[in-house]
Amino acid sequence: MSMTKDARPVNDAELKQAVEQHLIYTLGKDARHASVYDWRMALSYAIRDRIVGPWFHATRRTYEGQRKRVYYLSMEFLIGRMLEDAMINLGLLEASESVAKSLGFDLRQIIEDEPDAALGNGGLGRLAACFLESLSSLGCPAHGYGIRYEHGLFRQRFEGGQQVETPEDWLTQAHPWEFARPESAYEIGFKGEAVNGDWHPSESVIASAYDMPVIGWQGRWANTLRMWSAKPTTLFDLERFNSGDYAAAAEPEALARTLSRVLYPDDTTYQGKELRLKQEFFLTSAALQDILRRYLSEYDDLTKLPQKVAIQMNDTHPAIAGPELIRLLTDKHGLEWGVAQDIARATLGYTNHTLLPEALERWSTWLMGNILPRHMQIIERIDDDHRRATKRPAHVGIVRNNEVQMGELAFIMSHKVNGVSALHSDLVKKTVFHDLNELHPGRIINQTNGVTPRRWLKLANPPLAGLISDTIGDGWIGDLDQLKALEPHANDKAFRKDFRAAKRTNKVALSNWVGETMGVQINPNAMFDVQIKRIHEYKRQHLNIFETIALWHNMRENPDAGWAPRVKVFGGKSAPGYAVAKEIIHLINDVAQVINNDPVTGDMLKVIYPPNYNVSMAERLIPAADLSEQISTAGKEASGTGNMKFTMNGALTIGTLDGANVEIREHVGAENFFLFGLTADEVIKRRRNVRHARDAIEASQNMQHVLQLIVEGRFSPTDPDRYHGLVDRAWNHDHYLVAADFEGYYTAQRAADKLYLDPEAWSEQAVLNVARSGFFSSDRTIRGYMADIWGTESALDGEEDAA
Ligand code: 26W
Question: Keywords, A to Z (predicted)?
Fold first, then answer.
């Protein structure tokens, strides 16, 4: 059966027929009784049908061309919704709109009926999703490997202003974007004995594959995201069942499924839980067994593996890949130890995403030895070899104080290690891996993060995307550097007017949504000032709400002091066990309660915090933003990627010299960026003064007043002592230098006020931010990985433009 190599152009009639066919024959539903869910499934299957062609084509070209493949191992893929993204990459959005009209269903309603695939916590998981889309858009042969969690990141709701978590269950409904692959299943062993290389696991589960095609821009290529689901090795225990011991009968199933049951909701604190280590090995071993099976189906010389396979470890979470690859090459395929180690190192790359000490994984040698006895042996031997080969200082190594440092293991077992922004990669060399960097100069490189412009501009912001395409054509979607052509238009009054109109369209849409879902009226003329990201002290949402309180207070004191009307928008989840972050959430909601009902400030200031921030909500909030809050303590945010999305969508950034903010400011121009705060070096120095917070607060009337209002219960009249701990921490344990940066931040905010009151000047700067955001495309990032780490090329180069 001939499958066209690219997404077969389909006209409205054909698509309509395909949708009707799927409704009847796949869903078994009569159009007269079809629900939104039914139409969504029917349309999804019809769209999915058009992905299969490019998918098969990609696989065939890769095999025929004996091309090198990239394998991206990640415990998280924060994908979001898939229907609209697929329609856009296949160029079928308009066709789908007309089909929806002719079949009488509302396409937007259908799109928003799809649950997010929330298989990630935050930045790391979303980056993995952007990377897969760019790998397909660039035609780079690649697989993503992840876990098919039954429950993704928890659902957040507020009770009395406090976060409450409930399980997320995206799989209760059928999931049209995956293909079960029961034939691709691998046994994953745990525990048991390992006697000189002979390991007999005492427990095991089956990793069973589910494949999701990832279509690229213009539907010219589709790679595979293979997700593993845990199944029991032994089926249902009928004997026990017949003896009435039903629970025991179902135990093997229940036990196995725990491995892919739920995503760990921590994104900055390593918990050291046994189940987490088992999940990490489950993913990694299944992936490596699958990779070697595919390699050996084409080649028979494993020593050439690095020429055809590049494996990237997304942080240390899959770092057991080093020892596991050595085990498979030696114990299973009989290669010699040294040869196996060299092959593994030449194949593996490791990306570090955080410097936070509490986030670095270090498994106790007891637990590692218990869960993975063979790997513990291999880790010790790797460590030994490295000590001998490098004559390293005693304090350097993988196993230290009875713990296995997964960062050091990943570093030593990789041929390239990278940070995710220029500042971060520099700090990685100077801090966490200082000694190893000395021993292995040149191994650490930088690959500054990026985001896909398809989802984060073309899909999320049709008004602006349309204006850009009308102005410079739509080449920018596949080549974001072309946005540069917008620069001259920044001086064009008419263009600026259209640009503001596009932003306003998004702001009005958001105001309506906030009105409908939260019952709060916000004024679309106000500056939409947005901070959306996981809640964490280093991201300093508390600095933002302190400034909000100061602004509110001063607005009340001098209403005519030239304030810009503002809507403060917060969004973000806290790890369930992170009490301080949860307190910050509570404070933001308490402050919102008071300010939003204050007749004095009225429309001049509103605070909204929609619950359950996720990818789909980001797509709604970012296009409507005027000001992007990137206010982390310098040296703490490895990169940030939200900052890039806001810049692309024409928001101005208020931020510190941290992570990729530094590069954003370099690209958009310092004059088009509201900078404040201590630099990373100054932070280190300032911390040496133990009174740094007290001194700063005593020098700031504003901050003193803010803390006074909070501590006297102004925002918690029913529980006046509620924030005594928080205020005490602000005075005495201000680890993230909120006090030291408060006045600088307040002043920068007033500068933003001033500029916002001059829409021509504001929009000129905003246009320049968009025009100069090309560098922050994940296509540019992936090209860097392909050239500097993976040694792979696009399989599309030289292929005439199929579209
Ligand atoms: C072990 C628990 C755990 C889980 C996840 C620790 C650390 C993580 C991630 C590394 C945290 C994370 O998402 N880091 C973010 O990665 C983004 C993508 O590179 C960066 O843009 C963010 O700055 C960084 O915080």
Answer: Allosteric enzyme, Carbohydrate metabolism, Glycosyltransferase, Pyridoxal phosphate, Transferase
CA atoms within 13 A on the CB side of 547: 25
Determine whether 641 is an active site residue. Answer: yes
The DSSP call for residue 448 is -
Tokens 């993204």 — which residue? 85
Question: What residues does each domain of the chain span?
Answer: 66-80+116-447, 453-784
Q: Which two tokens stand for residue 755?
A: 């500029």
Joined together, the tokens standing for residue 686 give 């300032």
**pLDDT tens-digit series, residues 200-257:** 999 999 999 999 999 999 999 999 999 999 999 887 778 888 888 888 877 878 888 8
**Annotated catalytic, 645?**
yes
Q: Nearest Cα to 176, choosing from 71, 19, 57, 58? A: 19
**Regarding the domain with residue range 66-80+116-447, which homologous superfamily does it belong to in the CATH classification?**
Glycogen Phosphorylase B; (3.40.50.2000)
Question: How many whole angstroms from 713 Cα to the centroid of ligand 1?
Answer: 35
Write down the catalytic residue from 534, 636, 665, 667: 534
Q: Choose, from 68, 69, 533, 568, the residue flagged as catalytic.
A: 533
**Nearest by Cα to 284 from 234, 344, 195:** 344
pLDDT in tens, 329-379: 999 999 999 999 999 999 999 999 999 999 999 999 999 999 999 999 999
Specify whether the CB–CB gap between 596 and 607 falls below 8 A.
Answer: yes
What's the pTM?
Answer: 0.98
Look up residue 301 and give its two tokens: 């010389």
Spacing, Cα 401 to ligand 1 middle (Å):
25
